[in-house]
Amino acid sequence: MRELDSEAAGRGRSFLLLPSKITCPAPEPDAIERPRVREKLAQAIARPVTTLVAPAGFGKTTALAAWADRLDGPVAWCALEEDDSDPSRFWHALACALARADERLGAPRNMAEVAWTEAVEAREALTELLAQLGAFPDTAVLVVEDLHVVQDAPVVGDTLAYFLRNLPPQVHLVLTSRTPLKVPLAKLRVRGALVEIGQDDLRLSPEEQAALFRGAALALTSEDEALLEEATQGWPAGCRLLEMRCRNAGAVEVTAIMRQARASVSDYLLEEVLEGVPADLMRFMTETAIVESFSAPLGARITGLTEAEVRSRVDRLADAGLFVQRLEGEGRATWYRYHAMLQDLLHTRLRRMPEQESLALAGRARGWLLDEGFDDAAVGLSFWMRDYGAICDIIEQRWKSLWMNDELEALLRWIDLLPAPLLNERPFLCAVAALPAAYAGDGLRGHALIQKALLRLDDGEDFLFSFCMVQKAFLASFEGKQAESAQFAEKALRFLPEEEGFLRGMMMQVRASTLWASDPLGAIAGYGEALPVQRAVGNANLLASALCNLAVFQAAVGQVADAERAAREALDLYEPGQRAAKPMLGFAWRALAEVAYERGDEVSFAESCGWFEELSVHGVVAARRAELLVLQAKDAYGRGNGASGRTAFTGALAVEEAAALSMMPTLAMIRDWRGSRNGESAGEMRGTGSAGRLGLFRLMERLVHGEDVAAESAAFADGVNSEDAALKVRACVTAAVAAERAGRFQGAVALVRQAFAVSRSWGLAAAFAENAPDMQPLAALLRVEAAKGERDGAGSGQAADDREAARMIEEALKGAPRASDALTERELDVLRVVADGASVAEAAEMLVVSRETVKKHLGNIYAKLGVHSKMQAVALLREEGVL
């Protein structure tokens, strides 16, 4: 893998999650054993879903942490927050938790990049994740903590319900909530597939309450026990608070404390307990509550203490039972968080703190988060501080890394936190926001933001102007306005400073792409110029984008060796395990598919198509899919499977017609397509145009229609640059076929020789022979010319070439072995009878065999033909002319 993670590349860390969010808490060493809860949790590993529903302070997390610690398999843990109601954040967090538990549980794609509001894409993403989980060889547990904070978000609720319905048997889902769950559980309950743990299960029994106090060397009288039960109703947090309050108290004081607690156990006890905390610990707790969780280094930055002092204070809090949870492992990697009740009370104390002091705490925390790459958490803290200026600063510092790492959704989310008047006053931020807005589907907003930036443009602000042109170029490209996109790219390049390699490289790519339809070789040259600029930037994603596009264009013009090198270099930028999350690499596989097709490498062709399909689940440019479908159609025709070829070609035209036609379909494909449309002309549908690949298609269409296009096609072929070898070969073949049909045999021979020479020079065997059914007369002419050359004793080299060209045409005519060749004569007899409409019973009677024998023959037939029904088998053999 190439090392391209330079500082210039940006860190791309907006979705870096705090470890405390996706780490299973360590078990509490002094937790009270609750047999009822333990017994119910013991059933969880045998049931698909377990729920723990109870208000704060009932020990849900404590019980689960102790249970998880006893399990042998991986436990993924995700603690939710209100911001996770965004489905991208929700599923990204769950996927990270799963991958953290065991990398084999990781999602196949980046869940943060899924368009969750698009039902089809959302279901595809979840199906992939479920398939990944289903392939896990052992038992695994996923704990989703505090589901109540997100379950009212419609998309989160719907997608979680789908996930729950399709949960693989070896994965067990545990949900905790403070309020009743809204996910559909009724069917699981009826099937006995649900373990439900509620308040009554989590309450401490009188015996368990007494055990808690005995652990603190407190012996309760029967009156004390009754008062304790009356005050707390078995609420574990209340019992713990009372135990802490009663420490070092005499018997009379204990009874008095119990009586006082009956009024308002939570507020009273927390305040009472905290009153007894030493001042240094109280200040430490209040200051570190500025963040939801903290590590020793973060705590040190906030408080001004050393890391050792932070750990010492946390140890003192834990020893005092003050509701602090440990997460992660030992030492520097350990993170901590306070119980929700305690956190709420500490937030109250923070609000009482002088504003300047609390903002200073938050500022120090934010600085550490930014230093460590937790940008999203830093933005969230800035929003809590209402420090919109800081959010603006973070966006201005990080926008480039977010662009480079395809995190436009995060960038837009940060921008949307800003008040509209403030955004309108920051023209550069308006310009930054335009592309993410358009990427999210709001092109009108994107254009409006650019216009706001331009209206506030001052003299001399060349960079801002050029940046607005960059955005306009991107938006025009999204909208298919290639000419406008090229114009804006040119303007951007005119004003962008030379040292701005990232944007200059992107604009060079945009400009090159706009040339493809009119000047393919110019497009390739443009990408060649952009590559050194992108390499200098040092970002793998940018370089992969340039290489993948270049590979597609090179393959399309027949520069197969160069295309293969570019595609392989793009793939090598990433480790194999990373490639599945890089949709751009689908372009590389698309290029490699064309390389394999041209070389006749069926194995590599199938592999490349498979990888393209796997990556296309992330979403793929329609043109690339249409192109690949045409390649698959050509491959099918070449193997004698016209039915599959017709289906693929029709599908390609439906996906994107212009891209499909640019792949130069064969005469047989055009003939069948016209036949399916009762001879309707494609020209009537696509307007006018005669240049390049579309021009060749129109000539081929007219040739199929029976027109004499010999002169026109010869002139067309003569005008094609030989560097565009793929078009040159196919244009010469078409012209040769047209010349032969017009009786211009010498012209036909000259053209087919030219096609063969170019194809051999560039390694384009398929381009030369894919029209073999229409080239049979040309093969005969070549044989005649070869014999004449040998007889005359001149041009022996040309004679050898003629024989080789004829051989290639004749070999292509043979195609692959027919599917029916694999069948025995008896199997063919069965299929012939079935094709005539006989049932299994009737076929058995006609062939004088048992029904089971007929069924066995049919099973063998399906396996050999790769089909799944009698109808498919009959259709395939009729296509081959066997039936």
Explain what the structure shows:
With 883 residues, the chain is mainly α. The model is unreliable at 1-14 and 682-690 (pLDDT under 50). It contains 48 helices and 8 strands. The longest helix has 19 residues, at 796-814. The strands form 2 sheets. The chain has a 5-stranded parallel β-sheet. Strands 6-8-7 form a 3-stranded antiparallel β-sheet. A hairpin with a 7-residue loop joins strand 7 (324-327) and strand 8 (335-338). Among the domains are: 19-201, 3-Layer(aba) Sandwich (Rossmann fold); 206-275, no CATH class; 279-372, Arc Repressor Mutant, subunit A, CATH 1.10.10.10; 708-816; 819-879, Arc Repressor Mutant, subunit A. The radius of gyration is 36 Å and the shape is flat.
What key attributes describe this structure?
mainly alpha, Rossmann fold, Arc Repressor Mutant, subunit A, 5-stranded parallel beta sheet, 3-stranded antiparallel beta sheet, 8 strands, 65% helix, disordered N terminus
